[in-house]
Amino acid sequence: MPGTKISQRMRMLALARDCATLGARIRTIHHLTGLRPRELLHLLFSGQALPPRGRAPDSREWYHGANLLHRIEASVIVANFHRLRQLGCPAAEALVEAYRYYQSMHRQPLRISFDRAFDLAAHTEGLWIARSASFQLASCPRCGSEFLDTLGGMDTASRSCPFCQLLDRHGRDPRLTASYVVPPPISADIIVHLAPIRGAEGETPVTPAPLPTAKP
Ligand SMILES: [Zn+2]
Question: Would the keyword Disulfide bond turn up in this protein's UniProt record (predicted)?
Fold first, then answer.
């Protein structure tokens, strides 16, 4: 019964559950699913578990002061989100899968919360809470990586690329040496996993360029 109201609602409920599992706040789940906040609170957070509280992230200011590791991890999430969108994945599911992949590749505590990832994706594509894009994915002419940059900023100059900065500083900065985990490109497993969601036929999966490996 794909396309019926009940299957659409079941899909949104499953999405809401997945978002809550990833630590999303009610506001974020509401924007991603369209389900009412009161219903989400009742369905997802009855009992002792409480949703995250406090001010929701606003990445437009945050990104200017974010350190190198934050900018790298934000870039990895948004780049994978963008690739999944190109494969035909709906935006909400693409965000969940991109965040799950990020979560699986990095040690706790994670630097980028699901709410932050939502805000970054929203302001890169002009979705959900954002009327227009404030960020873009720029391509580095030096290393070929895609990285998050402010729209209309210095953009494609390699000096803006956090991956090039990592390569330059890795080994000299103990924090980077200890923290950095090479984020591999999106795996075939995720593409296979997303095949039922895509619902599109005849598309050829994109093989993304690998991200650079850190110098020893
Ligand atoms: Zn670069």
Answer: no
